[in-house]
Amino acid sequence: MKQKLFVNKKILIKLILDMLYLLILKNIKDEFLKEGADVVILGGQSKNPSVQEICSAIEKVDKKNIYIFPNNKNVIATAKTCSRKKSDKNIIVYGTKTMLEGYYCLKTGKKI
């Protein structure tokens, strides 16, 4: 089984928010990590991440506030399920429906 979860090993001071991005295309993964995403989960047509996969990714981010950008309308509900699980982290799901919306949030620091 190929790796589906990618963690950014760089420490980026420029980001105030801790961001978890769910991406469809593997070739865009590196661009999101380069721009400061803490964790990227790959998905795709009929390969959307499960609640467990998203919750596992959340645990890999060693921060108190985590913002999730699903980048796919079919993943928003799954991400919101994870945000309601008992945790010592504040998990906020923004309803990004496309990778372009998620990339915009990452580059500008603004939420859609």
> Total number of β-strand segments?
5
Helix content: 25-40%
Biggest sheet features: 5 strands, mixed
Number of helices: 4
**Lateral arrangement of strands in the main beta sheet:** 1-3-2-4-5
Tertiary shape: globular
3D architecture notes:
By secondary structure, the protein is of the alpha/beta class. The chain has helices spanning 26-34, 51-60, 76-83, 99-108; strands spanning 5-7, 18-23, 39-42, 65-69, 90-93. The longest helix has 10 residues, at 51-60.
Concise overview:
The protein has four helices and five strands. It is of the alpha/beta class and 112 residues long. Helix 2 crosses helix 3.
List keywords for this structure.
alpha/beta; five-stranded mixed β-sheet; 5 strands
SSE diagram, text form:
Blueprint: E1 5-7, E2 18-23, H1 26-34, E3 39-42, H2 51-60, E4 65-69, H3 76-83, E5 90-93, H4 99-108
Parallel strand pairs: 2-3, 2-4, 4-5
Antiparallel strand pairs: 1-3
Helix pairs in contact: 2-3
